[in-house]
Every structure is written in structure tokens, then in C-alpha cells.
Amino acid sequence: CAFFTGKLNIGVDTVQHGVEGLTYLLTESSKLMISEIDFQDSIHVLGFSDELNQLLLQLYLDNRREIRSILSELVPKLPSYHSLEWRLDVQLASRSLRQQIKPVVTLKLHLNQNEDQTAQVLQTDPSTLLHLIQQLEQALGEMKTNHCRRIVRNMK
Question: What residues does the COMM domain cover (predicted)?
Fold first, then answer.
């Protein structure tokens, strides 16, 4: 940075903001894999010269695949579903209450993560489980909307 600030007579903050802006431009464009035309439209509004716009376009085209591969390595590897076991327990009575119904659903969720298999045990009552199912079904329904399909398509 001292080289740039001394030779170009600009402040360290200006150089830092320029590098951060260039990094942001290239990573976001690479994430979305935007076309040449879309990239040119995006940088055209910045007011740079045509020569600089062409240099930025060439920089983007030369490096977008490598940037995407680096970004994919930075994504945390989340566990994936393997199987599910469940059991329904119902307490019908106790010493103090002769007639009671207290259901409990026990779930054992088997997950795969980096070649290892783990299990998570969860317990809930049926009403909470039904609410969770409704929320998941609503989320799946939202994934079928045009807006979400567009976002998912651009993420690939």
C-alpha cells in the first residue's frame, strides 16, 4: 500500500476501498455467473472509461471460474440426511393422575457429514411436530414460486 500511496499520491483508504470494491464486484458477478452483457451493464453505470471497462470485463472473464471454485471451497459442509427413526410414547396414567394422556414423539435423525455418520435425538409433543410440519410444507410451497426459482437458478 505504501508504494501506491507514494507513487500515485492517493491515500491508503482510497486504495483499500478500491481493492474491496473490485473484490466485491468480481465475487458477486462470479457467484451469479452473469453474462458479458450483464457485467458490462453493471460496470457501465460506474462511469469508467471504455478502456477500463474492457480491462475489467477481461479480468472477470479470465477469473470467474477460479473465483467460483474458491468460493465453493469456502462454503461450510453441512450434514445431509441419511435416515430417520421415530417412536410414539404415551403416558396414560401416573400415581397422582389416574387419567391423563401425555404423548411424546421421539425422533432419531441420522446424518452424514464428511464420510461420518452421526445421530441426533429429538423429543417433542405432537402439536409442536404438526406446527413444524406445516412450516416446512409452507417453505416447500414458497420454493415453487417464480421468485424463488429465479434465485435458485442464479445461485447455481
Answer: 80-147
Taking residues 88-94, report their average pLDDT.
86
State the residue for C-alpha cell 457429514: 113
Count of beta carbons in the 10 Å neighbourhood of residue 53: 16
Q: What share of the chain is helix, strand, coil (3-state, %, to 5)?
A: 55, 20, 20
Question: For residue 39, how many other CB atoms are within 10 A of its CB?
Answer: 21
**Cα–Cα distance between 82 and 10 in angstroms, integer?**
56
Measured between alpha carbons, how far apart are the two ends of the chain, in Å?
A: 36
What is the DSSP secondary-structure string of 76-117?
----EEEEEEEEEEEE---SS-SS--EEEEEEEEEEEETTEE
Neighbours of 64 (CB within 10 A): 19
Q: What single-letter amino acid sits at 108?
A: K
